[in-house]
Each structure stands twice: as C-alpha cells, then as structure tokens.
Write a structure and sequence with these properties.
mainly alpha; Sodium/glucose cotransporter
Length: about 350
C-alpha cells in the first residue's frame, strides 16, 4: 500500500463529509432536503448537473473507447454536449416555472401528478416506482465501482472498500441532503476537470510532443485512428451508428437526477447563465477525455480488451506523477462515481418519502 497515495483519498473523503456536516443544520424540512428550498445559484446548478451525469464513464469509459476504436467514438461526446445545451435551453427555465406553479412540486413524479391533475395519483405512483426500480441497480453499480476503485489503491479486500465508499456517500447525503450533494458535486466537478486536463497534457510532454501521438496512425491497425468517420482499423462507421451515438444527448431531457437541478434554480432567468457554464464544462471535459484516449494509445499501446483499455487514465497517472499528486488525481475517479451515486440516491429516496409514502397517509 502506498500511504502517500492513500492520503489523497482520505483528504477527499474528509472534505465531502465536512460539507455534509456543514449543511446538516441548514436544511429545514422536506422542501430544503429534497430541493434545497429552490435556492440554487446558476453556477452550482450547472456544475452539479454535469458532474452528476458523467459518472466514471468520463474518466474510464470514454477514454477506453477512444483508445480502442479511435476518434470516431467521439460522436457520443458530441451528442452529449449538444443534448446538454438544448436541455438547458428548452426545458430548464420552463421546468423551474411549472414545478413551482404546480403546487410547488418537489419531484418529477409529484409534478406530473399536479400538472395533469391526476386525482388518483396514477402518474405519481407509476413514475416513482419506475425511478426506484431503475435507480436502485444504478446506485448499486456506483457503490460497486467505488469499491473497485478504492481496492485498486489500498491493501484491503473488495467488501471493506465498497463499504467505505457506501458509508461516505450515504453519510453526506443523509446529513446535508440536496444542498450537500450539489456543493460536493461542484467540488467533484472541479476535481474531475483538473484531472482530465492535466493527465493528457503531461503525457504529451512525456512522449516528447504531439507528433508522437499522431504517429499512432502510422501503425497498420490504426490507419483510421484520427478519422471521425472511420474506426481505428480504417473501416467506415455506419451512418446509423453515428446517429445512435448522437442520440445519447436525448437523455438530458429526462434524467431525474439532472433535471432536478433545473427545478432548484433560485431564479428561472438564471438558466441562461447555467446553460453557458454547464455547456462550457461539458465541452472541455469531453474534449480532454477524448484526448486521454488518443494520447493513451501512444503512451501505453497494447491493450486489446475493453476492461484493460478503460484503465488507461489510471496507467497514465501512475506512470507520470509523484505519489501525492497520484492520490489527488485518483480521487477524481472516486469523485466521478460519487457525484452520480449521491444524486441518484437522493432522487430515489425522494421518490419513496415524498411520492409513495405520502399516498399511504391519505
């Protein structure tokens, strides 16, 4: 075990727990706990929304796909950036206004019921159950990822590592509610963006310049590595595949853990500022995640499986940086996982406490 690397993880865990304690006495009632009293400023709303969406895919999944198949996989990132922009543009302000007018709805399920005057609460019940059913496995997978990440860097078995991650995530979520989640997500968004920028730039320096990265295309099996319309092996990407990749962006119009940030804006007019901040963050983050995959193929060629390719960020960090910096950058991986898990956990718990349990009281 490298105890210097471990210091980075411990410091990160302590900070997010302190945020949870800070907001413990600043959440008054269910309205504050679930939606922060609709007092979210546009910068926090934007950064927390983007961080809660990306998960570990930003640092592991996307770079791994680029590493194996080339820049043609970037269409997914392009679709996400476009989808995020238009979600902020088309529904953020409207959702904030309508959820307030619809009896000050705290959740999407409650909004559907109030907006369409569903007296029998069919919409509330069905949508809340759907959120719970599909979010529980998603949250569980986040806990599993947190355990695997921690296990990679500390001398502990998987179960204790997973339990540590679970306890930390649940602790600051339960203590501080929505406000704690949003502010920890801001911290995590900044940590993720710093890590995703520093690592590929440092690797390019280690390689001796961009020309070494471009030399990847000289390999017979990577002739199409830098072509947006080809796979790494030179085969053409089907138009339907490109359309499918772009369609990833449609998810922004309905992801409960993302759109809840729209609902929590203090001023609906601030959606414009949030759109600019959020779009800027996601463009930079996705661009450098793609760069990690491109540079990674030059820095450490040889991975042929998806599971190996997804570790390229970890390999680059371990090969370039001193232990104390490694600890900070590895914490970005945990931040990516936790920023999604905490948001989904709160949305799922709100579906139970605010939507389903309220029905039993009638």
């Amino acid at each position: 075990m490298d105890y210097i690397v471990l210091i980075g993880f411990i410091a990160y865990f302590v900070i997010v727990l302190l945020v949870g304690f800070y907001f413990y006495n600043r959440s008054h009632g269910l309205h504050d706990y679930i939606l922060g009293g609709r007092k979210l400023n546009p910068y926090v709303a934007a950064l927390s929304a983007q961080a809660s969406d990306m998960s570990g895919w930003l640092l592991l999944g996307l770079p791994g796909s680029i590493y194996l198949f080339g820049i043609g996989q970037a269409w997914i990132g392009i679709g996400l950036a476009i989808g995020s922009y238009f979600a902020w543009l088309l529904i953020a302000k409207r959702l904030r206004n309508y959820t307030k007018k619809a009896k000050d709805s705290l959740t999407l399920s409650q909004f559907f019921s109030n907006r369409f005057r569903d007296q029998k609460n069919y919409l509330k019940t069905m949508s809340a159950i759907a959120i719970i059913v599909f979010f529980i496995p998603y949250v569980a997978s986040g806990f599993v990822s947190a355990g695997n990440i921690l296990m990679s860097f500390v001398d502990l078995d998987y179960v204790p590592c997973m339990l540590i991650g679970v306890v930390v995530i649940i602790a600051y979520t339960v203590l501080g509610g929505f406000k704690a989640i949003c502010w920890t997500d801001v911290l995590q968004a900044m940590l993720m963006i710093v890590a995703i920028i520093i690592v590929p730039l440092a690797a390019i320096g280690e390689l001796g310049g961009w020309d070494e990265v471009m030399a990847v295309a000289d390999r017979p099996a990577f002739s199409g590595f830098f072509d947006f319309f080809k796979n790494a092996d030179g085969s053409t990407i089907a138009a339907l595949s490109i359309i499918s990749s772009l369609a990833w962006g449609l998810g922004y119009f309905g992801m409960p853990h993302v759109v809840v940030r729209y609902m929590a804006l203090e001023d609906p007019k601030e959606a414009k500022v949030a759109r600019r901040v959020g779009t800027g963050w996601i463009i930079v983050a996705l661009a450098f995640a793609i760069l990690v995959g491109l540079v990674g193929q030059a820095y450490h060629p040889g991975f042929t499986t998806k599971s190996d390719a997804q570790t390229i960020f970890i390999v680059m960090v371990g090969g370039i940086f001193a232990p104390i910096i490694m600890g900070v950058l590895y914490s970005a991986l945990m931040a990516a996982v936790m920023s999604t898990s905490d948001s989904q956990l709160l949305v799922a718990s709100a579906a139970v406490t605010n939507d389903l349990m309220s029905l039993t009281k009638k």
